[in-house]
Design a protein that fits this description.
Order of helices and strands: EEEHEHEHEHHEHEE
CATH topology: Rossmann fold
Helix content: 40-55%
Shape: globular
Strand order of the largest sheet: 5-4-6-7-3-8-9
CATH superfamily: P-loop containing nucleotide triphosphate hydrolases
Number of strands: 9
Number of domains: 1
Distance between the termini: 15 Å
Largest sheet: 7 strands, mixed
CATH class: Alpha Beta
Length: 181
């Protein structure tokens, strides 16, 4: 059964959007904590260099205790499929997940369909973090333009199914869809 905070139903599926270093992960973590549910952090990043290791370590420290981490850089369906209704899953983030698939030259539409099906079928609450990459200049190379377009399409699809969509800018939240619990 879903948790209530006050008289508002906790959203089944939330999408937290923002630019790089906007505070979106911190807000998503806060949203997960206030759910009062058992927390799972589903990590999509992969460590290829020291900079990424430092960033991941910073996120782990920021989150604190009380989280179970599942690493799922490509296949989110098993990570979501094994969850229960008394749990909340924070997926951080859709942007890294998409990058992984693009660089592996996987079928992006098929992977997106699998992700959306897994989200719909997941019995746990889900908070998804994703980057908003369409606010900047047009990239100067084809791969970057392809990524920007794919990320935009993914965000549109994820937001279309979400109960709550929040944009985070400079650590400030703006609700785009739904209500905060």
């Amino acid at each position: 059964m879903d948790q209530f905070r006050g008289k508002r139903l906790f959203p089944k599926y939330s999408l937290v959007l923002g630019g790089a270093a906007s505070g979106k992960s911190a807000f998503a973590e806060h949203l997960s904590v206030i759910s009062g549910k058992n927390r799972y952090y589903i990590a999509t990043s992969q460590v290829f260099d020291d900079e990424m290791r430092v960033k991941i370590d910073r996120h782990i420290t920021q989150r604190g205790v009380g989280w179970t981490t599942i690493e799922a850089p490509y296949d989110l369906a098993p990570a979501l499929g094994g969850r229960r209704g008394d749990e909340i899953c924070l997926i951080d983030c859709a942007t890294m997940w998409l990058s992984n698939h693009m660089l592996a030259e996987n079928d992006l539409q098929a992977e997106q369909t699998r992700l959306q099906t897994a989200l719909r079928n997941c019995p746990a609450n889900v908070v998804m973090v994703s980057n908003e990459v369409g606010h900047g200049i047009v990239p100067d190379n084809a791969l970057a333009r392809q990524f920007r377009e794919a990320q935009g399409r993914l965000n549109i699809a994820l937001a279309g199914e979400a109960d709550l969509v929040v944009q985070v800018v400079a650590g400030l939240t703006q609700v785009l869809k739904g209500q905060l619990p």
